[in-house]
Amino acid sequence: MKLAVTTMCWGKLRNEKELGQALHTAREIGYQGIGLEFRLLPQEILRSPEKLPQMLTQEGLENAGGYFALRDEQLELAKRSDTRVLWIVSREKDCENAIYKIEQYVRKSSEVGISIILHNHLRTCFEKEDEIIKTLRRIPQLGLCLDTAHAKAAGINMVRFIKEYADRIKLVHLKDLRQVLPKSKIRFGRDFVNVGEGVIDFTEIISTLRDVKYDGYLMLEIDKTEKNKADQEVRRGYEYIQTIIRKI
What we know:
CATH superfamily: Divalent-metal-dependent TIM barrel enzymes
Protein name: Sugar phosphate isomerase/epimerase
Domain Xylose isomerase-like TIM barrel: 89-241
CATH topology: TIM Barrel
Shape: globular
Distance between the termini: 13 Å
GO molecular function, one term: isomerase activity
Keywords: Isomerase
InterPro entries: IolE/XylAMocC-like, Xyl_isomerase-like_sf, Xyl_isomerase-like_TIM-brl
């Protein structure tokens, strides 16, 4: 398993310099990969996404994937930035239509060498275990980005799920859940917190991933961080995860 961090931790990055600083910090801390939240990247990078591979190479970081909306034009942006894995969140209300649209998107992306992975997400058609499994069975080429906070909030038994569907898990987003609440009362910015600050047993989860020989990224994702504390939180998360890995 390798460690990555999403650019979401730094919030909206205003220019190329800020992005470069975030990448440098990630590598200096010890992360091996970076997850690209394209909606939060500087406009100058979105206009010239070809800059991204060089920036990552300069810092010795791997492109661990990116988050895009389910739009065809985004595939061109992914190709130009050499982002070969995209995690997606569908907010379509009609679940059958949502699955159909994902199926079509997976087909188009595979034609240009890009892999699509479904992010389990509260308040979508893909929050509960049975909904996720149904979609994975319908679309054999679709992988899963298992988000620990969303899964815990949805009541998914992650240890059992990981054991049963290890072959479909291509990325793991690590974030904590402050406390167990009814799903309707969950507020992402308030209740999704940095690892070790909530109720999730990450030792159990990471041990299970090791047991099933998961060799993808463990990607730290923090939904809301004060701008001036982002570096500190990203470092703290890394040290917490590393402590677990050494222990197991």
